[in-house]
Structure formats: C-alpha cells, structure tokens
Amino acid sequence: MPCQKSDELQRFVEEAKRYTKDGKVADYIPELGKANPGDLSIAINYPDGRCISAGDIDKKITLQSISKVISLALVLMERGYRYVFERVGMEPTGDPFNSIAKLETMPAKPLNPMINAGALVVTHMIKGDTVEDRFNRLLGFIRELADDSSIGYCENVARSEFESADLNRALCYFLKQHNIITEDVEPLLDLYTKQCAVEMNCLGLARIGMIFAMDGVDPLNGKRIMPDDVARICKTFMVTCGMYNASGEFAIKIGIPAKSGVSGGIMGAVPGKFGIGIFGPALDEKGNSVAGLKLLELLSKRYRLSMF
Ligand code: GLU
How far apart are CA 66 and CA 52, in angstroms? Predict the structure, then answer.
C-alpha cells in the first residue's frame, strides 16, 4: 500500500522545521557531517498496513543508535534473558551515550544496552563464525522487521565511522580487559560500524516501530517476529534510555517508547497503535533530532499519545 501524504502531518513538519536552525548535524563521524540540517520528514505506519507521511520520505537514514534496540532484540532471542543481562545492565546512566565514566566506577559491566559500551557488548553477543555471518544474521532480522529485503548498509558511513571510532575502540579495550568482551576489538568494531550504517528511509523505521508497538507480531499476516517479552524489554529500554540523557524529559513531555540515533533518525513505537519514523539530522546538544523532538511533541499533544 503506498504511503499517503498527510496535510496535518505536513503542517506539523512545517512548524517543527523552524527548530532545525537550533541544531547541528553530527560530524564526529565525518560522513554524517554531509547531511542537510534543514531536512525533516516523518512517516506513521499503522497495524492495518496504512501509512501516512510528510516531508521527503525517500531520504535514506543510517540507523546508528536505533540499531541498538534491534541488536538487543536479536541477542535476547539468540542467547536468552539470563545470558544477556549477566553481561549488560538495565539502568539508565544520565551520562552521554559514549561516556566511559561509569565503567570504571561500577563493576565493569555496562549499565545498559543503549549506551555505546552496552551496545558493543550486545553486538559482541551476536552469534556466527565470521563478521559477515553475524552481520547477515542481523541484517536478515532487520529486513524481516521492516518487511523490505532491499535494505543494506552504507559502506561510506561504515568506513568513516570505523576509521574514526577511537572512543569506541577505547571502550572495547576496557571491556576486553575485564573479560566482558572476549573477541578481538577490530572485527567487533567492523561489525558494530556496519550495524550502525544499515540504512533505510522513514517508512522502514515506522514499520519497525509498528512491530515493536504490536508486541513483536506482524499484524498483517499474524506472524510473530519476536516473542512479546523481547518486544516489551526493548520498549522499556526505549522509555528509560532511548533518547540518551534526555530520556526523562522525553518521557514527561512526549511519553512514548522511542530511540534516536546521531544520524537524526527517531523510531517511535506507540503501544498497540502505530510506529513512527522521523528523519531530521540537525541535533541538539544531547544528540537528539531537535526538530524531530518538536514534531513528536506536537503529535503527542494533538493525539494524546503519552502512555503515562
Ligand atoms: N555509531 C554511533 C557511535 O557508536 C552511534 C551513536 C548514536 O547514534 O548515538 O558513536
């Protein structure tokens, strides 16, 4: 079913777009610095297959941190709850996503799977003999969630991050020293940077958000893509740590499970209702899409989306 343009969404996009000038695109991954800060688009995917959108929804977005929710779902299915949470915690940190600070003050286990340290441990848990095997396993799962077998990754973004990921390298070496990571750092970073560079448009994001919103079932064919408990755990992390160290404010102002990435993407899952995909690469100082947040605030108020 083609995605319908929505006049109401378009009005929200126009209003929220004014805020793009208050943000900056991420450039610590050099390739991401090429994005146009004025872009803003949104798609909403409903369980009956309907889709509405506004803005240039054909633009591709690399998942970046949004991929952390999906890799977590995969390893929970492959390894089980106990194995995963013996190696990564469940608590928000209040620190920036790439912070190393708490690793030294706590037992070395990262506090949650949404910060980089925790996400690297999660990626480490993806099963397979080679990086290629493991990546294909993750990509297959992403394609199934998005119902789009054409999804791939952006080699330029992956390479750009791999070549500049010294902070993530440092996190990996720290975790390796403490036996939380037991493989070589370079292949793990290769896998992680490819995971973060998987790209799709807002429609794909909205569709994946819808599957989480529907507790892991594809409502169109009744197929269960993940156990409902896995979807529930992922949505809980989206609420407690999905929007970096702005997750508390986001829960108060908007109140839906959501995950953002430094590419300017946001994936939202409104429980039982629909999935949202947003692309707005101008970020605020915490790394969230500045206009994307505004757009979600307008939507949440208009449709009373807060779950609290
Ligand atoms: N690939 C990025 C990193 O590890 C993801 C960060 C993000 O989107 O928050 O730095």
Answer: 21
